[in-house]
Structures are given as structure tokens and as C-alpha cells.
TrEMBL record, chain B:
<feature type="transmembrane region" description="Helical">
    <location>
        <begin position="330"/>
        <end position="349"/>
    </location>
</feature>
<feature type="transmembrane region" description="Helical">
    <location>
        <begin position="169"/>
        <end position="190"/>
    </location>
</feature>
<feature type="transmembrane region" description="Helical">
    <location>
        <begin position="261"/>
        <end position="283"/>
    </location>
</feature>
<protein>
    <submittedName>
        <fullName>Iron chelate uptake ABC transporter family permease subunit</fullName>
    </submittedName>
</protein>
<feature type="transmembrane region" description="Helical">
    <location>
        <begin position="118"/>
        <end position="137"/>
    </location>
</feature>
<dbReference type="InterPro" id="IPR037294">
    <property type="entry name" value="ABC_BtuC-like"/>
</dbReference>
<dbReference type="Pfam" id="PF01032">
    <property type="entry name" value="FecCD"/>
</dbReference>
<feature type="transmembrane region" description="Helical">
    <location>
        <begin position="143"/>
        <end position="162"/>
    </location>
</feature>
<feature type="transmembrane region" description="Helical">
    <location>
        <begin position="215"/>
        <end position="235"/>
    </location>
</feature>
UniProtKB/TrEMBL annotation, chain C:
<protein>
    <submittedName>
        <fullName>ABC transporter substrate-binding protein</fullName>
    </submittedName>
</protein>
<keyword id="KW-0732">Signal</keyword>
<dbReference type="Pfam" id="PF01497">
    <property type="entry name" value="Peripla_BP_2"/>
</dbReference>
<dbReference type="InterPro" id="IPR019546">
    <property type="entry name" value="TAT_signal_bac_arc"/>
</dbReference>
<comment type="similarity">
    <text>Belongs to the bacterial solute-binding protein 8 family.</text>
</comment>
<dbReference type="InterPro" id="IPR051313">
    <property type="entry name" value="Bact_iron-sidero_bind"/>
</dbReference>
<dbReference type="InterPro" id="IPR002491">
    <property type="entry name" value="ABC_transptr_periplasmic_BD"/>
</dbReference>
<keyword id="KW-0813">Transport</keyword>
<feature type="domain" description="Fe/B12 periplasmic-binding">
    <location>
        <begin position="82"/>
        <end position="344"/>
    </location>
</feature>
Length: 356, 357, 354
């Protein structure tokens, strides 16, 4: 984890517009926008089934979806494209939710889920599985990545919240930097000692949707679902917390409990997403910024928007990665930042700045 | 000419030094800071003696001295002159540059995690180095140049992209993150597509290692330090004033824009040459200024104590990394990550115990 | 994407195995002296090429000289007695040929043990390789070598020397080009062995190699339409098809007439062509050789690859593929000959991978 992502900022997020005064304005409009976004997600998902590194005519695609005949094309569509599309939606939504939560939690628009040490923990556990136990299958990595993510975020939270006062955003960021640094060193040490482990790890460490069996989704699905439900239920208390600790308490919000639940949700979402697809950076950081231009700072809208937009972003990046390097592919973890960074830069330059 | 005066608390004394262009520069020194600097220098010298005399090829300390003064066997000369001495000097000088650069950036950003990486420096340097290692198969000097060009070029690009009716802090940082993420993808792509042995070499560079230190590198970092370290020390007072806010600094006769610009140039220059010599070694830039500030008890950037702390930290870490593990020479970056991360964790835990958290 | 900026867009030695991996370093740098035919290599072997060594003469005492594959001539006042091997493949090839070093490199990738050398147990040889694939320079100094032997990379530079330029001050360096067909590599090892005053140890194995070579040539001639793909695992990304213009093993069999699956980019695309799982059934190969010791893929699509479905798949024990010795390559060519003889042509799809 680099220190850059962890730069704490004393600047609190702008207070949420009570009653909805986002750029679109009005809950009806925002609900409409969400429906449009969901529609776009469906379109991208269909594209993801229809387009791949192998060119298959649309008619064949439809035929194989409706009447599976066991042909090569059928196996490609049902056995490869459908699972990775489902995985992309789940992982993308999880990363978007986790990112939005993390930015609300640390009141820092530059925070991403990596701040809690989730990626570092998952990576260390996977390397340990490769190096010490000799495991080499993706579905075996899943449990290790989940456990590593959980242990790391518990450590970060414990270190960041010791003492009378609860975890402050700056302390959480510092604790995350400390734990990530030590875990990163462990990873480097282990992979440098063994070229085989290094080779396996350098591919795992580039997040990808390809080649994951459907079992990866069933393994991580319950965690993703629990995390998503928890995250979406935190919108209102997070809105209160954005006003500052004291105001939140005056409004009757349980700040400590909200913070702990948000950390739990981020761990479940980001840990399970990393376990399923490997570390995918930047989506969690950037998508909430895009979503915020539509919804304004109201978490009740920001969270679902972030989930849907991140799923679209991830799937679209994955499709792009399949067609630019035929007959091979480029992993989605590489494409996301490349596609997303210009969008974010454009947004940042366009905005008046105050909204950051 | 130097002129001594009693400081505000009676213990500290402002030292007035006539600057090279006739301007007056003053900074705070006190007995404790001087003592700390002396102890740091002594410890670094002790580390140097131990580093030069230990290793797989056995040379006792008297032989080391004899070799350095012209005697000794040709094998002794090879080991000392070609292997250990340039490595030790690189560790000391790179550590000093990182410590001083870190002190400048932390003071400038008023943030204990402030670093040139905020504007994408490290990621850009890595991209430059990886392109030279993996695509162009360049020499060591070319790798160093690639890293410096990549780092400085990225920082400049981020700065220009963030410029729109002035540069705003938040916009700068966000664009820095976006560009760094993009270059990070390039780095991942290069690493994952390269031959595994090449990739391992590149990965070693990314962690930060002193294994391939040589005399040209020592010269480069030495000249950089000779120019920029005094400049950074002289900026100390201005930076100290800036930490209190621009208005107060103006009232004290400091011109904020000029100090800030000079500090960025000095900080980036020190970090760039250090990184191009040894790769992005973690946490020295972060922890050395923090340690130095606590040791001296003096507020402000503490550039010189930070540089000395960095020199001691890196040379000691490198000795442990070389000698502490059998069967491998650990790249020093692995050890500095553990030490730095552990230090930060300890600091957090201690501040809680002290009731200050 | 900036793929065009990269010289090796699909270069992928991904997820290869220990033996395979280490050798990648020595064999698969950029470019290649492409298309050097076996015959040309054999000319070099016969001494008409670069050899000016006072080689064959076992009598020592006088000055010693040796011209290596780069054309660089090393001159010494006497025949060197303390030789150091700087890479895994150099260690394996020269140990098999009969040279006994004072220091040798083994990064633990399994290449060196494939010629029966266990450096951990053999206390007479100083181990100068680290587990992290780095040279232990001080251990090399302590061995007091008077000759260093390194591998030559495709661009003509030396593999270990290029990363450790300082050691050139220790002793002169002889390079062995590892980008050549096997006959040339092992032939150079034998020539150097003779020049160092030893007798090439595996004359019987050399005869076995020649017999296996004849057998494979005959098998290929009898089955002229058969297309062979040497492939390896890219994990979730698919599989890689090895580039015939690069690998020593592939160059060796190609010289015997074997028809190999071509890859896009030819010699510019140094290592291999990455093929995603969606496209693996389209690889135009009738016989697949699984060229790593990773287990076969579990991906369901793999079983639908025509050659695999027809049972025309060989998963050899490849531990020795990158330890260049007559004995190891006699075994390899022998096994290939059997599979070429029994495989049916025309099983795989038409067309090309790219």
C-alpha cells in the first residue's frame, strides 16, 4: 500500500444536502437516474456475454443462451462469459460500495478500501498459501484472501481505535499505513525467496475476472451479500456523522457503532471482492467521485449509485480488455485504471473544486 | 561571520550566518540538537566500521584500515573498494537525502505522511525504471536516468494537469492519484508480461536495494547532497514560519511562494536522485524526520538531524539486511518497510498510552 | 492501451515451472540470431568457426587462449585451474561435460540437479547463487577464480556480468551462447572442457543423442503433415504457445523437420503467444506438448481442444529440458519421436493462432 493513498485530510466532506439538493435535485429524479443506471448495467452485462476475445456471431450467442447444444461456442458462452459477467457485477458493486463507505467513514475523499489494509492482508495471506503451503488453485486462494483481509482490517481498526476516543479518520489512515507496510514487506520477502511463488503471485496480484470458476462466486457470494446489505443500511447514520462527531451525537447517532459496522461492511465487501478477483485498485476510489457529481453527498443515494456505476465500469473495462489483445486478453485490473483515470481527471478539472 | 544570541527560552540560541550572497540566514540550534547530531554521526561511523569489516569474505577491522590506506591484498581491495565502500557510502548518502527530502515535504504539507509521491513521483519513477529494465534492457546508469525522468516528468505532468486558475491542493492530490493509478497499471502490465527473471530484477528495484551500488552512483548522490542539503537547511527557518500559516510567515518577513517553490525543488531533487540510485526505499523519508523531531525536541523541519537520522537508519538497515539472513541478501527496502511500519504502529500505540491519542 | 510501445506485448513465460523459468532468463531475452541452422552450428563445432583454443592439447604449462561465442578471445599465461560457473545452465552444461569448478551458481530452480549435481551436499564447490536468484559476490571472491563462465544472451551481452559489472575485475570471462540449437550449446561445452584439460565425460551419451536425433528425423519424415504445439499454462489467462523462433529446444526439433505452430510476430515476439481460454480450441496443432511441469489445466475448455480430445497430448517429465547435456536431450528427442510416430495429422483446426 502506498502512503499516497493514505494522506489524511482534516477537511471534512461537505455536509449532505438535507432533503436533497444534489446537482440533479429531487428524490424522484435521483430514483429515475438509478433506474437508468441499472438499465445501462443490463446492457453492459449483455454485451459482456456477446463480446469476447473469440468472435462469435450474435445469432449463435442468442441460440446458445436459449438452447445450449454443447458446442465449443456454447461452452465459451455458458462456461466462460456468463460466470465472469456475474462475477464482474458482484465484484464491481462491492468495490464501489466499499469505496463510498470508506470515504464517508474517514471523511476523506481520497480514501480507498486499501486504507484498512484489506489488500495488503489478502496479498500476504495468498503469498503465504502459495509459499508455505504450496497451494496453487484460485478457489483455495479465496479463503486465505478473505481471512487475511479480515485479520488485517481488525488489526488496523484495533490499532486505530485504542484509547478513550474511538477510531479517528487520521489514526485509521496511519494505522493502515503501518500495517500495510509491514504486511507488504512480508509479501516481498516471501516472493523474492522463491521464483515459483513470485511467478504465481505476480499474476494473482493483477486483478482479473477471467478463468474463475463459478464456485468462486458461490464461495464469496454470502460475504458480498451480507456486506452489501449492511452498507446500504448505513446511509442515514453516515449522513449524520458527516456533520461531525458532536452534531451526530446530538442528532442521536451512535458514532462508535456506525464506524464499527462500516469497517465490518468494508472488510466483507472488499475482502470478498479481492478474494474472488484479486486486488483491483482505483474503482473504489474513483467511482464514488463520479457518483457524487450525480447524487450530491447524501449517502442514502451515493451508496447505491456507487454500486451500480462501479459494476458498469468494471464490466466495461473487462470487455475492453478482451478485445484489445486478441487472441489473448488484458486483465481487468490493468484496464480499469487506464480507462478510469482520464475520466476522473476530466471530472476533477471540470468541477469548481469545492466539491472535493 | 557568526553572531550568537540568546534564544527566546534562554537555552536556544539563534545562529546568524552570513549567506553566500550576503543575505542573512538564521536558524535555531540548541545544545540538545547539537548533541543529537553528534551522537548520530558517531553511530553512523560505528555502523560504517562494522559494515566494512563484516561479510562472507572475512576482513578484520585492522585489515580494513590498512586496505583503505593503500595496503592489503588485491582481494581485500576488490571487496572493500569495489563492493563494500560504494555500497556503504550509497546507503549513508541516500539515507541522508531521503531524510532531508522527507523533512522538507512533511513540513511543506504540514502532514506527517507528506511525500513527493502525492504528485505521483514514486509511481512515475517506477514506470521509467521498468521501461528501461524490461523493454530497453538498459544499463544501471540508464535505469537511474529513466527513474529520474519518469519521476520528475510525472510530478510535472500532474502539476500542469492540476493547473486551472491556480493549483488547488485537493485537485492536485486527486489528479496525482489518478495519474499514479494509470502508471501503476502500466507497471503491472510490464511486470506481468515480462520474462520471470527480468520481472524479478525489476521487482527488486521496486522494493529498493543497494545491491548494485557503484562509484558513479555515489558521485551523483554526493554532488546532489552537497548542493541541495545546505539549501534545504537554509530553507528550514522559512519552512518553520510557513508551518504557522502564510499570514504569520509574511509578518515574519518570509515570502511564502518563494520558500514553497524552493522547498519543492530541493525536496524533489533530493528524492529523485536518491530514488534513481537505490529505488524507492520505503519509510526512510517518512520516519527519519519524525524520529529526528522527537530526538531534538525542536519544532520545525529539522532538516539536518533528519538527514543524519536517515543516513544512520539506512546504513544500519542495509547491514542487517545483508548479514542477518542466511542464503539471501534481503533488499534493504523490505527491512525499512518492517522497521518503518513497526515504528509507526508503536508510535500510535504509545500516543494512546500517553493519553494524547 | 499502449501495447505498441512494448517490444514484447504477449511475451509470456507466465506460470512456467522452475526448470522452464530459470532458463527463460538465459534463453529468452530479446531478439534472436534467428534461423541459424544445425548445419551451421555443426560447422562451428568442427572448429572451422570461432574456435582457436589450444583446446585439444592436454599438455599444460604454456599460455592458454580460448575464443568464445561472442568472438571474444581470452588469453592467460597458463591454463586456468579455478573455474567459476555463473548461471544455472552453464553449471549444468559444463558439469555434465566434465568440468569441475571451484564455485557454481544454482538458484534452486532444478536445472543443476538434472545433471546429478547437488551443490548443497558437494562441499568442494562454493555455492554462489542465492535463493533470490542474485549472485553472492563475496562468496565468488572467496573462491579466488581465475576464469568465469557466463551465459550469452540474445543481444550478445553476458547474463550475470550485465547485472554485476564489477566482477569483470576478478577474472576473464568466457561466454556460452544459450540461444543456439542444442548441438551447438553442448558442443561448445565439450570444446571448453577439452580446452580446460579435461576429457568430455559423455561420449556414450553423445552417440545416444545422435541415434535419438536420427529416430526423430525419420518419424517426422514419415508423418509430414503433423503440426506440433509446445504449450504451457497461463493460469486464469489461458495458455501460451511457445515461439519456434526463440527456444533452443524448438529450434533443435525444427531443424529436424518438425512442423511447429507459428506465433504472431515471429522472432520479434520473443517468448510465446498468449491465447485466452475462449480461443484455445482454435490452436492449429495436431499434437500438444505440455512443456512445463505444472499440472494440466482443469479448465473445462481444455478437454475440448481437438488434439487433447483425441489423446494426442504429451506431458513429459521436463526437469532436464534446460540442463543441456547429450543424455538429457537423447531422452527428450526419443520421447518426441514416439509421439510423433503415433499421432494422426489433421486432428487440430486449420488456420493460425493469431
Amino acid at each position: 500500500m502506498s502512503v499516497r493513498e493514505l494522506a489524511p485530510s482534516a477537511r471534512p466532506a461537505p455536509p449532505p444536502g438535507r432533503g436533497g439538493t444534489g446537482p440533479i435535485g429531487g428524490n424522484a429524479l435521483r430514483a429515475g437516474g438509478l433506474v437508468v443506471a441499472l438499465g445501462a448495467l443490463v446492457v453492459v452485462a449483455l454485451l459482456s456475454v456477446a463480446v469476447g476475445s473469440k468472435g462469435i456471431p450474435l445469432g449463435t450467442v442468442v441460440h446458445e443462451l436459449l438452447h445450449y447444444d454443447g458446442s465449443d461456442d456454447g461452452v465459451v458462452i455458458r462456461g466462460l462469459r456468463v460466470p465472469r459477467t456475474l462475477l464482474g457485477i458482484a465484484v464491481g458493486a462491492a468495490l464501489g460500495l466499499a469505496g463510498a463507505l470508506m470515504q464517508a467513514l474517514t471523511r476523506n475523499p481520497l480514501a480507498d478500501p486499501g486504507v484498512l489494509g484489506v489488500n495488503a492482508g489478502a496479498s500476504a495471506a495468498v503469498v503465504a498459501a502459495i509459499e508455505l503451503l504450496g497451494l496453487r488453485s484460485l478457489s483455495a486462494y479465496v479463503w486465505f484472501a478473505l481471512a487475511g483481509a479480515a485479520v488485517a482490517s481488525v488489526l488496523v481498526y484495533a490499532l486505530g481505535s485504542r484509547g478513550r476516543s474511538a477510531a479517528t479518520p487520521v489514526r485509521l489512515a496511519l494505522a493502515g499505513a503501518a500495517i500495510s507496510s509491514v504486511l507488504g514487506a512480508v509479501v516481498n520477502w516471501l516472493v523474492l525467496m522463491d521464483q515459483t511463488a513470485f511467478d504465481d503471485f505476480r499474476f494473482w496480484s493483477v486483478g482479473a475476472l477471467a478463468g474463475r470458476p463459478l464456485s468462486v462466486l458461490t464461495q464469496t457470494g454470502p460475504f458480498l451479500l451480507a456486506g452489501a446489505v449492511l452498507a446500504l443500511s448505513l446511509g442515514r447514520p453516515l449522513n449524520a456523522m458527516a456533520l461531525g462527531e458532536d452534531s451526530a451525537r446530538a442528532l442521536g447517532a451512535h458514532t462508535g457503532r456506525t464506524r464499527a459496522l462500516a469497517v465490518l461492511a468494508v472488510t466483507l465487501l472488499c475482502g470478498a471482492a479481492t478474494a474472488a478477483a484479486g486486488p483491483i485498485a482505483f474503482v473504489g476510489l474513483a467511482v464514488p467521485h463520479v457518483a457524487r457529481t450525480v447524487t450530491g453527498p447524501d449517502q442514502r443515494w451515493l451508496l447505491p449509485y456507487s454500486a451500480v456505476l462501479a459494476a458498469i465500469w468494471l464490466l466495461a473495462s473487462d470487455i475492453l480488455g478482451r478485445i484489445i489483445a486478441r487472441p489473448g486478453e488484458i486483465e481487468v485490473g490493468i484496464v480499469t485504471a487506464f480507462v478510469g483515470a482520464p475520466v476522473l481527471i476530466w471530472l476533477v478539472r471540470r468541477s469548481r473544486g469545492a466539491r472535493l | 561571520m557568526n553572531e550568537w544570541a540568546k534564544g527566546p527560552d534562554g537555552r536556544r540560541r539563534a545562529v546568524r550566518v552570513r549567506g553566500p550572497r550576503g543575505g542573512e540566514v538564521s536558524f535555531l540550534l540548541d545544545g540538545r540538537a547539537l548533541l543529537v547530531c553528534g551522537v548520530l554521526v558517531a553511530l553512523t561511523l560505528a555502523t560504517a566500521a562494522v559494515s566494512l569489516s563484516t561479510g562472507e569474505f572475512r576482513i578484520p577491522l585492522p585489515e580494513v584500515v590498512r586496505t583503505l590506506t593503500g595496503g592489503g591484498t588485491s582481494a581485500d581491495h576488490f571487496v572493500i573498494d569495489t563492493l563494500r565502500l560504494p555500497r556503504l557510502l550509497t546507503a549513508v548518502l541516500v539515507g541522508a537525502a531521503l531524510g532531508a527530502g522527507g523533512a522538507v515535504f512533511q513540513s511543506l504539507s504540514r502532514n506527517p505522511l507528506g511525500s513527493p509521491d502525492v504528485v505521483g513521483f514514486d509511481t512515475g519513477a517506477a514506470t521509467g525504471a521498468l521501461l528501461v529494465i524490461l523493454v530497453a534492457h538498459g544499463s544501471r546508469a540508464e535505469i537511474a536516468a529513466g527513474a529520474a525522468v519518469g519521476g520528475v516528468g510525472t510530478a510535472l505532468a500532474v502539476y500542469l494537469l492540476a493547473m486551472r486558475r491556480g493549483v488547488q491542493g485537493a485537485r492536485l492530490v486527486l489528479i496525482g492519484i489518478a495519474i499514479a493509478a494509470m502508471l501503476g497499471s502500466v507497471n503491472s502490465y510490464l511486470l506481468s508480461r515480462a520474462d520471470v527473471s527480468d520481472a524479478q530484477t525489476a521487482y527488486l528495484w521496486l522494493i529498493g536495494s543497494l545491491n548494485s551500488s557503484d562509484w558513479p552512483g555515489v558521485t551523483a548522490i554526493g554532488v546532489t547532497l552537497a548542493v541541495l542539503l545546505p539549501a534545504a537547511v537554509r530553507l528550514g527557518r522559512g519552512l518553520n514560519a510557513l508551518e504557522m500559516g502564510d499570514d504569520l510567515a509574511c509578518a515574519l518577513g518570509v515570502r511564502p511562494e518563494r520558500v514553497r517553490f524552493a522547498a519543492v525543488v530541493a525536496g524533489v531533487g533530493l528524492t529523485a536522485v536518491a530514488t534513481s540510485c537505490a529505488g524507492p526505499i520505503a519509510f526512510i523519508a517518512l520516519s527519519a524526520p519524525q524520529i529526528a523531531r522527537r530526538l531534538t525536541g525542536v519544532p520545525g523541519p529539522n532538516v539536518l538531524p533528519a538527514a543524519l537520522t536517515g543516513a544512520l537508519l539506512l546504513s544500519a538497515c542495509d547491514w542487517i539486511a545483508q548479514q542477518g539472513f542466511t542464503g539471501t541478501q534481503l533488499p534493504v527496502g523490505v527491512l525499512t518497510s518492517v522497521v518503518g511500519g513497526g515504528y509507526l504502529a508503536w508510535l500510535l500505540a504509545r500516543e494512546w498510552r500517553g493519553g494524547r491519542g | 492501451m499502449s501495447a505498441t510501445l512494448l517490444s514484447r506485448p504477449d511475451a509470456a513465460s507466465l506460470r512456467t515451472d522452475a526448470e522452464f523459468r530459470r532458463i527463460t532468463a538465459e534463453l529468452t531475452r530479446r531478439g534472436f540470431l534467428g534461423g541459424l541452422a544445425t548445419s551451421a552450428a555443426l560447422v562451428g563445432l568442427a572448429g572451422c568457426g570461432t574456435s582457436t583454443g589450444h583446446g585439444g592439447a592436454p599438455a599444460s604449462g604454456g599460455p592458454w587462449s580460448f575464443t568464445d561465442d561472442r568472438g571474444t578471445r581470452v588469453d592467460l599465461p597458463a591454463r586456468p585451474k579455478r573455474v567459476a560457473f555463473l548461471t544455472d545452465s552453464v553449471t549444468a552444461a559444463l558439469w555434465a561435460a566434465g568440468v569441475r569448478p571451484v564455485a557454481a551458481f544454482d538458484s534452486g530452480q532444478g536445472i543443476v540437479p538434472a545433471v546429478g549435481l547437488n551443490l548443497a551436499a558437494d562441499k568442494s564447490v562454493i555455492q554462489i547463487g542465492n535463493k533470490d536468484n542474485e549472485l553472492d559476490t563475496e562468496a565468488l571472491v572467496s573462491a579466488r577464480p581465475d576464469l568465469l563462465i557466463d551465459a550469452i544472451q540474445a543481444d550478445g551481452t553476458l547474463q550475470t556480468l550485465s547485472g554485476n559489472p564489477k566482477i569483470k575485475d576478478l577474472a576473464p570471462v568466457v561466454g556460452i551462447d544459450m540461444y543456439q540449437p542444442v548441438e551447438h550449446i553442448v558442443g561448445q561445452a565439450d570444446r571448453l572442457t577439452t580446452a580446460l584439460g579435461a576429457t568430455p565425460a559423455d561420449a556414450a551419451a553423445h552417440r545416444a543423442y545422435q541415434a535419438a536425433q536420427a529416430k526423430l528425423r525419420a518419424a517426422v519424415a514419415a508423418n509430414p503433415g503433423l503440426r506440433v504445439g509446445f504449450v504451457f499454462d497461463l493460469g486464469p489467462n489461458g495458455i501460451g504457445v511457445m515461439n519456434p523462433a526463440t527456444w533452443a529446444v524448438l529450434k533443435t526439433v525444427k531443424a529436424l523437420g518438425m512442423k511447429l505452430v507459428p506465433v504472431a510476430g515471429g522472432k520479434d515476439n520473443t517468448y510465446s503467444q498468449a491465447v485466452s481460454w475462449e480461443n484455445v480450441t482454435g490452436i492449429p496443432a495436431d499434437l500438444m506438448v505440455w512443456a512445463v511441469s505444472d499440472p494440466l489445466p482443469t479448465e473445462p475448455v481444455w478437454k475440448r481442444v481437438p488434439a487433447v480430445a483425441a489423446g494426442q497430448l504429451w506431458k513429459p517429465d521436463i526437469r532436464s529440458w534446460y540442463a543441456y547435456s547429450w543424455a538429457n536431450f537423447a531422452t527428450l528427442l526419443e520421447g518426441l519421436a514416439e509421439h510423433v510416430a503415433s499421432a494422426k495429422p489433421g486432428v487440430g483446426p486449420k488456420g493460425s493462432v493469431a
